[in-house]
Specification:
Chain lengths: 277, 229
């Protein structure tokens, strides 16, 4: 049971890293961003390029992957997402899904369709409550909690963070105070993409790296965002860990139903709390 | 100061404003009245740059501004307070003011002093989340936020809508204290407030400007306005 709980925390951490960008993007820009999957996946492929092909160390590869995704995310935001501000959600869905599909083909073209394995970069274990836990996964959970605290401080203490929170409430209100909201939205988008890559970097060694890996996890992340409340930072954190735990507990007794339970939870939230979403 | 000439504004195929013209002189408090759906809010949103006109011009200080964004108009001294009383609900009152101060480049203590001078009670809820404020407190915060920096033209949409009588008195007091300091175009249905504060009144009916009343010289004209609301 201890391992199941720990496994749930691990899944929660991954979901949190990837979902926070989606939540911020929807909360500020009202864009359902399927392109988020592609920045996540490209980030992971850049990581394996450095780690597997160039034989560089994992931390160096991770930092370079995050840095490399910043200009890519900026270009997607500047030339595709920004044109969708104010459009209906259907258009944002179609356009960003197209970006995701183009990205998947681009990955297949550059790196090939075959999956790549990546081993745990630490490879050591910690004994806790008589359970042997991979240090890498412990680090993942701690990083997610640290990220939550750092983001909380960023949005609470800095003027940039406060402007983003204000734009979540009333974008036109911020514009009418003379603030160029688009500049801050770019920052939110790039930040969200970089965090998704961080999630991908953590997830890559415990999963399979393939061109569709982003699409596979995206639906779970949408469930996290819907349950947590779109644009709700604390809600996204709690929802990620709650759904991660739900997946782990379900998988213990009914492995085939682990993901299904997440969508059942999402449906229940949609039925009983549609106005807040 | 502000001259609007022959303005047409549409939402898609639905034309809301037809050939609307009005002007505001420096230091004037001008009211815009009319029934719901007459196009009053549309006119304010067009002036502040949230909507684009299909025809006509908006000239401010001799320059055409109808194609400028709200961000650019803010720098020219335009301040807009919408009718929805939307504050930044997840931030405190102080943080709401802080964002306005940051945007205008005004030191926070100057902004705070400016707002407390028109509404001293705001000190009591500076640390309160703006989302927890009453409708009246929100309205006062929004008007206060609009005074940060160097406002030259206030565009205020229905400042007393849905507020209790005691709060309306406070709003009247605040607006009265701003007279002559800053120009204003205010959408309002409360005729007693309009009579008390207006220099001029424009009446909008079904998207057309049908009447202009110079308040002090046309007392009887003001009495007739109730028939239009």
């Amino acid at each position: 049971m201890h391992y199941t709980i720990f496994y749930g925390l691990t899944i929660g951490a991954i979901l949190y890293f990837i979902s926070i960008g989606l939540s911020l993007t929807f909360g500020t820009m009202r864009v359902i961003n399927f392109a988020h999957t592609i920045t996540y996946t490209i980030g992971v492929y850049i990581l394996i390029t450095f780690v597997i092909f160039f034989k560089w160390s994992f931390p160096v590869g991770a930092v370079l992957a995050i840095l490399a995704i910043i200009p890519i995310a900026y270009v997607i935001e500047r030339f595709i997402i920004r044109r969708l501000y104010g459009d209906s959600l259907d258009y944002t869905f179609i356009a960003t899904f197209a970006v995701a599909l183009i990205g998947v083909d681009l990955i297949k073209w550059i790196w090939g369709p075959a999956p790549y394995p990546l081993s745990d970069p630490i490879g050591k274990y910690l004994i806790l409550f008589d359970v042997s836990l991979p240090i890498y996964r412990v680090l993942m959970v701690i990083s997610a909690i640290l990220l939550f605290i750092l983001l909380h401080l960023f949005f609470k203490m800095t003027i940039v963070g406060k402007i983003i929170i204000a734009a979540l409430d009333d974008k036109d209100g911020v514009r009418c105070l003379g603030i160029n909201v688009d500049k801050y939205f770019s920052l939110v988008f790039v930040m969200g993409s970089a965090l998704a890559v961080l999630g991908g970097i953590f997830y890559a060694p415990i999963s399979s790296i393939h061109p569709y890996m982003g699409l596979a996890i995206l639906l779970l992340c949408f469930a996290v965002v819907i349950v947590g409340g779109m644009g709700n930072l604390k809600g996204t954190f709690l929802s990620a860990f709650a759904l991660g735990m739900l997946m782990a507990l379900t998988a213990r007794y009914w492995p085939q139903g682990a993901e299904t339970m997440v969508f059942i939870a999402m449906a229940v939230v949609l039925i009983f709390r549609p106005i807040d979403i | 100061m502000l001259e609007i000439r022959n303005l047409d504004v549409s939402y898609g195929y639905a034309k809301v404003l037809h050939d609307v013209s009005l002007n505001i002189k420096t230091g004037e408090m001008v009211f815009l009245i009319g029934r719901n759906g007459a196009g009053k809010t549309t006119l304010l949103k067009t002036i502040i740059g949230l909507l684009q006109p299909q025809k006509g011009s908006i000239v401010y200080a001799g320059k055409e501004i109808s194609n400028l964004s709200p961000e650019r108009l803010y720098l020219q001294g335009f301040r807009y307070v919408g009718q929805e009383k939307k504050v930044f609900g997840n931030l405190t009152v102080q943080e709401n003011i802080e964002i306005a101060a940051f945007a205008s480049g005004e030191p926070m203590d100057v902004s705070l002093k400016k707002i407390t001078s028109i509404y001293p009670k705001i000190k009591d809820f500076l640390k309160t989340k703006a989302g927890q404020l009453s409708g009246g407190q929100r309205q006062i915060l929004l008007v206060g936020r609009a005074l940060v920096g160097e406002p030259k033209l206030l565009l205020i949409d229905e400042p007393t809508q849905g507020l209790a009588a005691i709060v309306i008195e406070e709003i009247i007091h605040i607006l009265d204290s701003l007279k002559k300091q800053v120009s204003a175009l205010i959408v309002e249905q409360n005729l007693s407030l309009v009579k008390q504060l207006s220099d001029r009144i424009f009446l909008l009916k079904e998207g057309k400007m049908v009447r202009e009343i110079i308040s002090k010289s046309e007392e009887s004209g003001i009495q007739d306005l109730e028939g239009y609301l």
